[in-house]
Every structure is written in C-alpha cells, then in structure tokens.
Amino acid sequence: MMVPVSGILFRAVYTDVKKGIIENRLLLLGMITGFLFVILTGGKMLLWESIKSTVVMFAALFFLYMIKGLGAGDVKLICVLAVFFQKTCFKIVVIAFFVAAFMAIGKMIWRFLNKKKIYQRRETLRFSIPVAVSTLLIFLQEAGICGQ
Questions:
Q1: Considering only CA atoms, which of 54, 73, 67 is closest in space to residue 12?
Q2: pLDDT at res. 125
Q3: pLDDT digits (tens, 9 = 90+) for 33-68
Q4: CB burial of residue 45 (10 Å; 0-12, 13-18, 19+)
Q5: What is the separation of C-alpha 72 from the centre of its chain, rounded to a whole number of angstroms?
C-alpha cells in the first residue's frame, strides 16, 4: 500500500515546493488508484469505508479551506490519503498540524538567530510536507517500526 502512496506524496511535495500547487491530475490518479486498490484488497465493505472517510475528511477540512488556512490541493491530498488510510487519516491530519507548527516555529527561530524579521506577511507553508511526514510516521507505526 505504501508504494502508490509514497509516489503520490513524493510528486505532491515536489510540485508544491517547486510550483506552489498540487496537480489535480496527480490527485485524480491517486484517488482512482486508491479506490482500485481498496476494491482489489478489501471488497465492497472497505470501499464503503474509504468513501465515508474521504467525505468526512473533506467536510472537516472544508472550513479551513474557506478561511484560507489550507489550500484546495492540500484538502484534496488528504482526501486521497483517506482512501488508503480509512482508520488513521484523522491521526495523519492531527500529526501534520503538529509537524507544520514545528516547521513554522523552527523557521521563526532560524530567522531570529540570523537577525531577520521573524514574521513575513503572506508567507505560506507548503502543507504537503507535513502531510508526507505524518503519513510516513503513521505507516512506520502501523508496520511496528516506530513506537506506539
């Protein structure tokens, strides 16, 4: 399961950092791949769980999109992950917000140490990076490599 997810996340992070967007065609491919994977491995019951988790994640994150807390690509990327990680997608999002907070604090400390202005208006954080990191952490936890 991690092979298609890692490819999607790698490309999402790359285009997010390089161009500032997450491509819709990548997300559509990820969604199709996810649903095909779910159908082949878990049947109709797991497909229904995937659809439910995707809808719940979209509904939960839509408000953040409306107030410009997240980009549309970030919301859609998390919805793609909800197809693959039905039970742990909420954990992925929560951990991603913590990773993003640490990234922002780290950036502010770096600027402070270099005697630069700590806060810059209209600066964005590429949220695909914390999403990829948190997905990796959840995958390692589920594989038993990382602690509970």
A1: 73
A2: 87
A3: 999 999 888 777 888 999 999 999 999 999 999 998
A4: exposed
A5: 12
